[in-house]
């Protein structure tokens, strides 16, 4: 599938009708083929779009309006159900097309494994790429129950691709002993439990570098985002995640792409998770797309 093909479904608020004039491409990756607890994140992208209709188009945080950013919602990639290998190949091909056009990719997941082919493509475009990873889980396993393609493995794959010293994780509060040992011994950066304060301290070291940002909604405490597949108690608030997005927006790093993953709306009848996610996406568009 080409990202510039017509899409007849729901779109994120104020999406432009023409991809050619857009600086950013918003796209969905409806995949949850490898989840180990609760499936359903494949329904996340469309629920985020639907929730966006309730947003204001102006951000009082950034003092910008969505009319100031040109983006095109390309819809969801039609991934083959139950086939993670082929799905990841299709995501990689899709991202290559977006990057060839010089546009900013902003992806909606889907399980966190979908971030891996995106970052792989980004690393081949930007030789000095750094990755900011905001999540409850370390995602540093080499495999999970014998499966190499697992939602528990994407950040380990990223470390092996670009070097652990170029990976910066924030908000981590879950993982097995070996994951935390790997983080400590490999040279990657990991801030446990908190996001905004350690992010503020770390970002000056990344000034001027191209950075990809991947955000797992489960970094939030389940009180703020119950609609996710692997909820983890003890997380940050929505306010704190907004602050982190704005810290990145006001920094000297060069954000070259991003994603927000793991919204599983079936576990949240109040829709607060999708509503929060849509606001985060609005702030990413306004703050990170230059």
From TrEMBL:
Keywords per UniProt: Hydrolase, Manganese, Metal-binding, Polyamine biosynthesis, Putrescine biosynthesis, Spermidine biosynthesis
UniProt catalytic activity: agmatine + H2O = urea + putrescine
GO molecular function ontology, one term from the record: agmatinase activity
Cofactor, free-text remark: Binds 2 manganese ions per subunit.
Cofactor field: Mn(2+)
InterPro entries referenced in this protein's UniProt entry, alphabetically: Agmatinase-rel, Ureohydrolase, Ureohydrolase_dom_sf, Ureohydrolase_Mn_BS
UniProt: Mn(2+) binding residues: 112, 135, 137, 139, 216, 218
Top-level taxon of origin: Bacteria
Pathway connected to this protein: Amine and polyamine biosynthesis; putrescine biosynthesis via agmatine pathway; putrescine from agmatine: step 1/1
A GO BP annotation: spermidine biosynthetic process
The enzyme's E.C. designation: 3.5.3.11
Family that this chain belongs to: Belongs to the arginase family. Agmatinase subfamily.
Function field: Catalyzes the formation of putrescine from agmatine.
Name the record gives this protein: Agmatinase
Organism this protein belongs to: Gracilibacillus salitolerans
């Amino acid at each position: 599938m080409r990202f510039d093909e017509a899409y007849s479904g729901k779109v994120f608020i104020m999406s432009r009708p023409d991809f050619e004039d857009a600086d950013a491409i918003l796209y969905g990756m409806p995949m949850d083929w490898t989840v180990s607890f609760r499936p359903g994140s494949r329904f996340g992208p469309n629920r985020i779009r639907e929730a966006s209709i309730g947003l204001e188009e102006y951000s009082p945080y950034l003092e910008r309006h969505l009319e100031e950013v040109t983006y095109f919602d390309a819809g969801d990639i039609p991934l083959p159900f139950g086939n993670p290998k082929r799905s990841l190949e299709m995501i990689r091909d899709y991202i290559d097309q977006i990057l060839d056009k010089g546009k900013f990719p902003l992806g909606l997941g889907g399980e966190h494994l979908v971030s891996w082919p995106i970052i792989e493509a980004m690393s081949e475009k930007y030789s000095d790429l750094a990755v900011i990873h905001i999540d409850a889980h370390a995602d540093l396993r080499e495999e999970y129950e014998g499966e190499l393609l697992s939602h528990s493995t994407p950040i380990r794959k990223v470390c092996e691709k670009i070097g652990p010293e170029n990976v910066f994780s924030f908000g981590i509060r879950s993982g097995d002993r070996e994951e935390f040992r790997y983080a400590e011994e490999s040279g990657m950066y990991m801030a446990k439990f908190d996001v905004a304060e350690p992010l503020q301290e770390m970002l000056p070291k990344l000034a001027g570098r191209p950075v990809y940002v991947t955000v797992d909604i489960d970094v939030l405490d389940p009180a703020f985002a119950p609609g996710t597949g692997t909820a983890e108690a003890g997380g940050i608030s929505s306010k704190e995640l907004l602050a982190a997005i704005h810290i990145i927006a006001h920094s000297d790093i060069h954000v070259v792409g991003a994603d927000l993953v793991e919204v599983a709306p079936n576990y949240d009848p109040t829709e607060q998770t999708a509503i929060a996610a849509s606001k985060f996406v609005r702030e990413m568009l306004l703050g990170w797309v230059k």
